[in-house]
């Protein structure tokens, strides 16, 4: 059994071929797709965060709205760029969204990826401290965020407050118990997955990883998952972590599916340089009839180890079409793999 959900980047475009023409469209359709996913028996609605782009950016209003309109599915991010975040304010937003959803928030965070503007986090008021680079700044923000989520008091109360205070030091409110164990880190290298485990975060692995061995994408990703679990055991945490992987999986069950994705049937891994010091391998897309997909996905070594699979959706094709893709995956592919 695996949890199956979608990952939505939330692109919008005024192209005549797009059903998502504006920010309002992508936000409202994201809510509708989450509701449809719950009705179809899916398990999660996750959203990517990119700043200065015609994509989803501010996740917490969206997550809170979905939490209020659904009852069962997990809601989350994949991932929030911690270079841009005030960890105190983020803890308040995350606590509120988690309480609204009844404890269903699964928050994916990371040090971020190349963005639309140069050093965009500087426009948000953040800069690395002396001796830091931008990645170290993201990890510093993360360490503060994780500490605050524990719910322990740290702020000295005003002796003459406007409202009565509880005894002792004060904490950020609202606090949502249990949220600290539902934080995920988006990692791409073995060193980072090991750091993730030591920090006590769940592992979120996407459709690219650092090309560290030259092996196929799914093999390198599988090695990273194994390294994460090895490091987790050595760290001695007292709870079981989770691991998610993202995939582009397009079941072809109609002529329209074939028109959109038939050309992806022979997709292969690709290698690229996404940052000066990061050579990455990008995982292939899967597009085929359900019985062929079952055979192909059974050979994906990383998929076998993950407990959560996130389907990257072509959101500009609209809610109805993406709900159709999810239904095909849930009803015609997942049973053949033992995921349902």
UniProtKB/TrEMBL annotation:
<dbReference type="InterPro" id="IPR050766">
    <property type="entry name" value="Bact_Lucif_Oxidored"/>
</dbReference>
<dbReference type="InterPro" id="IPR011251">
    <property type="entry name" value="Luciferase-like_dom"/>
</dbReference>
<feature type="domain" description="Luciferase-like">
    <location>
        <begin position="11"/>
        <end position="249"/>
    </location>
</feature>
<dbReference type="GO" id="GO:0005829">
    <property type="term" value="C:cytosol"/>
</dbReference>
<dbReference type="Pfam" id="PF00296">
    <property type="entry name" value="Bac_luciferase"/>
</dbReference>
<dbReference type="GO" id="GO:0016705">
    <property type="term" value="F:oxidoreductase activity, acting on paired donors, with incorporation or reduction of molecular oxygen"/>
</dbReference>
<dbReference type="InterPro" id="IPR036661">
    <property type="entry name" value="Luciferase-like_sf"/>
</dbReference>
<protein>
    <submittedName>
        <fullName>LLM class flavin-dependent oxidoreductase</fullName>
    </submittedName>
</protein>
């Amino acid at each position: 059994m695996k949890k199956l959900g979608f990952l939505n980047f939330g692109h919008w475009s005024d192209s005549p071929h797009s059903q998502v023409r504006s920010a309002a469209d992508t936000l409202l359709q994201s809510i509708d797709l989450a509701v449809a996913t719950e009705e179809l028996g899916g398990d999660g609605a996750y959203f990517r965060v990119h700043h200065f782009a015609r994509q989803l950016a501010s996740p917490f209003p969206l997550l809170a709205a979905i939490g209020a309109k659904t009852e069962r599915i997990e809601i989350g991010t994949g991932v929030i760029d911690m270079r841009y975040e005030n960890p105190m304010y983020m803890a308040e937003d995350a606590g509120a969204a988690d309480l609204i959803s009844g404890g269903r928030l699964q928050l994916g965070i990371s040090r971020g990826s190349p963005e639309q503007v140069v050093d965009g986090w500087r426009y948000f008021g953040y800069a690395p401290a002396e001796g830091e680079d931008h990645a170290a700044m993201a990890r510093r923000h993360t360490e503060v965020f994780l500490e605050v989520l524990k719910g322990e008091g740290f702020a000295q109360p005003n002796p003459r407050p406007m409202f009565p205070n509880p005894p002792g030091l004060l904490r950020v409110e609202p606090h949502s118990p249990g949220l600290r164990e539902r934080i995920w880190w988006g990692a791409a290298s073995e060193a980072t997955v090991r750091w993730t485990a030591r920090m006590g975060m769940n592992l979120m692995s996407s459709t690219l990883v650092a090309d560290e061995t030259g092996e196929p994408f799914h093999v390198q990703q599988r090695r990273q998952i194994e390294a994460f679990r090895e490091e987790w055991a050595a760290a001695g945490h007292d709870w079981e972590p989770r691991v998610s992987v993202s995939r582009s999986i397009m079941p072809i069950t109609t002529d329209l599916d074939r028109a959109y994705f038939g050309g992806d049937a022979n997709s292969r891994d690709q290698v690229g340089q996404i940052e000066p010091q990061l050579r990455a391998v990008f995982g292939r897309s899967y597009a085929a009839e359900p019985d062929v997909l079952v055979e192909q996905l059974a050979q994906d070594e990383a998929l076998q180890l993950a407990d959560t699979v996130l389907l990257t959706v072509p959101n500009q094709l609209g809610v109805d079409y993406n709900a159709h893709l999810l239904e095909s995956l849930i009803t015609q592919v997942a049973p053949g793999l033992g995921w349902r």
